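Write out the bound-state structure for adenosine-5'-diphosphate.
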Amino acid sequence: MIAEVLIEYNTKNIDKTFSYLIPPILGPELKKGMKVKVPFGRKLVNGFVLDIKPKPTDIKYELKEVNKIVDKFLVLNDELLALADYLSTKTLCSKIWAFQTMLPSNLKVKDKKYNLEKFDTYVTLNTSDDKVKEYILNNKRSPKQNEILESLLQTEKLKKNELGSSVKTLLAKGLIKEEKEKKYRLNYTGETHGTHTLTEYQSEAYNEIKKYLNTPKTILLHGVTGSGKTEIYMTLMQEVIKNGKTAMLLVPEITLTTQIVKRFYEVFGSDVAIFHSSLSMGEKQDEFERILKGEVKIVIGTRSAVFTPLKNLGIIIIDEEHSENFKQETTPRYHALDMASFRSKYNNCPLLLGSATPSLETMARAKKGVYKLVTLDKRVGSSILPKVTLVDMAIEMRKRNPYISSLLKTKIYDRLSKNEQIILLLNRRGFSTVITCQNCGYTYKCPNCDISLTYHKSTNNLRCHYCGYTVFKNDECPSCHEKSLNFLGLGTEKLETELKTMFPIARIVRMDTDTTSLKGSHERIINDFKDGKYDILLGTQMISKGLDFPNVTLVGVISADTSLNIPDFRSSERTFSLLTQAAGRSGRSETPGEVIIQTFNPDNFTLECVSKQDYNKFYNYEMQIRKKLSYPPYYYLVSIKIISNDYDKASSESLKVKNFLQANLEEKTIILGPTTASMFKFNNTYRFQIILKYQFDNKLANTLKELDKKYVGNKDVYLEIDNSPLHI
Ligand code: ADP
Ligand code: ZN
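---
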């Protein structure tokens, strides 16, 4: 027999398998999907066995032999092998790169660097009970020894390191023996309890979804914030597990896993495995192994958890499905939703997408009936959706309140005096290359593409990075005629200082990428805030989603404009979702919540929809724009970036790329550009961009593959192809 082995060289040039003979001693053990060592050139390299088959009779040359099996426990099953195929086709990445992506770092194709296995050592009796009793009777000198033996007569085993030194004598005498037991770092051993009884509305939604268990249907659960979606997920999982199957829950951010995992541990105990990027290598390996061995029934994790080897999936759930974190922004540029959809079909199980603000793409599919739509428009219990107020910051500027409006200030004082908690959201500063008037909030926009223009210092002009439209920049604002262009945003740190001066008695905690770089720091901040150790939680996007703090009754959004002005056609959608989610953190229990949103654009339609918390109104309006300008969901997009250290090369190659596309794609596909990419000069490279808009194009897949191949190995120019980019 021979093995077809995909080896670890990560270049697209050798993206194929090589045949190796299977030596007789490996014969019975070697399985498809195993990691092996094989000779390649003059070296030994690692690879994956993708197939085992009889040796063809017509091979003329001599085959080399598989050297050894690297990891006996690691066997990628057929589903994961198929998933790797799908991943590499979908994202144009090499197959070996697909495996690298699917496996936790310590199990990647390269050699294992550390031995991460942990064990607990136990002792058990090594002889008959009678002999032990006899020993105890005769042993008058060491009561300690007797104590241990007495205990072992009662319980089966004891942890060795808790027993002191007498254990050594007993071991030497052969009365007891050691036993090593694999120790998992994250195994939950606390108490468990059942789920809440679903409310009438939750039950309705649950029953609707339950109909689709054992079908590969994709279902959208559109439920307002606080409607109890998580509770429905848990009840569905109980049902799935009852039927002998497993379940997967993907959440967008590690920040969210803390609270959710806690709820799941309390219901499902050690049946739950966690999987996300901030686990240690050892924790990851442990969890992966428990999953591989079929010891867990539920996996909860971020994007990459979609590749975990759970067998016999009964449901896959993506919570906060609109979140952009489900898309990986480095090669391979995959979307977890596509991968989940593949696994849902493979396992004949439903894919459930949950969100209060579904992405337009998802909702459009649900409205067309491609997905099943289930709606929950009431919060659980007596809790109601919060009241949202927009504050015009142009007026506040004149009153010299550049950061915190007088209304927000009053409300913060009010909550502090009542011992209620406050969340303040400060969006990350938008692109500094977007010019905004500090006086009136005016931003230059492209008349063709409806996105903000980006400023190019070298030429002192503003350019649309979709279509290339250009205007010169004046000093004066075209709208209010003040000389106050160049507004740069405000950082969380600065705001924290402002707040401390304004509210000296308030206990403030900041949560952003600076304060959460240490492992466990998200968890600590969230728990401390929940425990009431702070009054104000100040943070970036990462605090807007999913968190459940019953004592928060006020949410303040410092500037809604930063995200509105990002030069991208999805900036309205992102703003709507971000602010609705943030608003959803307020008033989650009996005391009603309030939300204050500060903006220079109080008449903006998106903000109006946020203030009414009206998803459908926003959806209908935004869909019209998308239709008019041929954006998703009406058209699919591909972005092709042409990147080089050399400006002229980047520029001339991008024209060649365009010509190639024009010659090889169907005529109805729209080709925009080449133009400068949104981050034109980045890391000392120049980046040009071509955007494709298409509905159906039979030639597309092949053309992109051909194009990609042309640049493999090109040292001067690099192509970055993104099939359905989130940001263009
Ligand atoms: P969502 O995920 O839709 O924002 P959650 O599932 O977090 O909502 O539920 C909001 C709050 O309501 C949580 O504190 C949760 O424990 C509680 N809750 C949900 N369902 C029920 C129920 N059936 N009975 C009592 N409390 C519930
Ligand atoms: Zn344009």
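---
Residues 525 and 565 are 30 Å apart (CA to CA).
Residues 387-429+491-626 form a domain with the Rossmann fold fold (CATH 3.40.50.300).
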